[in-house]
Amino acid sequence: MGRGYRDNDSRQYDRWMVYAYTDLFSARKLAEDERCQRNAVFHCQQCIEKALKAYLMFKRHRLYDGHNLTWLCKQAMQYDHNFEKWLEKSTAVNKFYIETRYPSDTMIDITTEMLNDLIESTFDILEFITQLIHYDYMSSRRKN
């Protein structure tokens, strides 16, 4: 087993997509309450991570380990160069994995505009992957 792979997690990419969609739905709901915006940002990061992992599972039939969106995006680029357009966004969102969950010396200032942009970008990435793997959320949700 090489670096970046795990054998003990589900390799069913469609189940990972269900969780990715759930993270997006959660982000949208949490964004409605200013007190929960940090959590909304975290769920955007999680949505992108799970969708990228689902795509890689679809292609490689193995789960990639880690939370670094840029690294996952670069792995996906090996199969489809169009992932390159998400590299910059993945780098920007990477910091939210830790910084939205734990206190730090410098708090991230999350504006409503920034959050709305992030939710829109998250949706765009999720839809991009959904189309690549011909995923149907409603059908998959019924069997999970």
Description:
α1 (13-30) runs antiparallel to α2, α1 (13-30) runs antiparallel to α6 and α3 packs antiparallel against α4 (87-94). This protein has helices spanning 13-30, 37-60, 69-77, 87-94, 96-99, 112-132, 137-143; strands at 5-6, 63-64. The chain has a single domain (5-143), classed as Up-down Bundle (Four Helix Bundle (Hemerythrin (Met), subunit A)), CATH 1.20.120. It is globular. The two termini are 28 Å apart. Strands 1-2 form a two-stranded antiparallel sheet. The longest helix has 24 residues, at 37-60. The chain is mainly α and 144 residues long. 63% of the residues lie in helices and 3% in strands. It is built from seven helices and two strands, in the order βααβααααα.
Give the structure's gist in a few sentences.
With 144 residues, the chain is mostly helical. The chain contains seven helices and two strands. It has helices at residues 13-30, 37-60, 69-77, 87-94, 96-99, 112-132, 137-143, and strands at 5-6, 63-64.
